[in-house]
Amino acid sequence: MTDNPPARRPGRPRREESAEIEHRLVETTMRMLVEHGPSLTMNTIITASGLSRKTVYAHYPNKPALFAAVVRQMLGYALQPLAVPPRARWQESLLSFVEQCLAEVCEPYATAMRRLLMLNSSFFEEARPQIEQVVVRRYLDPLAAYLQSLVDQGILPDQDVGFAAESLTSLILSESHRRFFQGEADDSVDAVQLNRHARRLTALFCGGITSPADL
């Protein structure tokens, strides 16, 4: 006969429990930010999380501390490189890549994070290095590698693929900026409109890299 393990005494939660609570709070806050924006209150977060007020404030003493944790986690999700999908034609692969990028940068979570960064300048200064890292690792690096493979195969003429990748990424991000500052960020992203915009960007870009001007 084995003895049951002794019940843990009340007090500070174990490390695993603490990590689970923090994850639950951050996930809840991310979801609620999409609905409420930066005006989201701690009371609303506490109610939605199902945790006690004492537990929440033991982990995050105020809203800025919790919002900063949300920004860090949202950026952490985006560090995985986005692969260029294989298609029959390289132009179709680029189109699929551009569509995926546009869908990501225009999604509600991206808008919520942008609002947080604009709400508090310290958030942005703290997150700036990670934002730059996300752009490079998720978008620029895989795109530049794909373009270089096309050059190596003789499909594209020799050119500065790093500059080409930066140019296309800037065009993609500019659509997110446009939607945000023209008040369209809260509108649902229309798949047909997104595809149309992706086709325009891809056509413009492909025309430039297949016939680079000698200026």
UniProtKB/TrEMBL annotation:
PROSITE patterns: HTH_TETR_2. Pfam families: TetR_C_7 (PF14246), TetR_N (PF00440). Gene3D superfamilies: Tetracycline Repressor, domain 2. Transmembrane segments: none annotated. Residues 19-78 form the HTH tetR-type domain. Keywords: DNA-binding. Coiled coil: none annotated. Residues 41-60 bind DNA. It comes from the Bacteria. This is TetR/AcrR family transcriptional regulator. It comes from Sphingobium tyrosinilyticum.
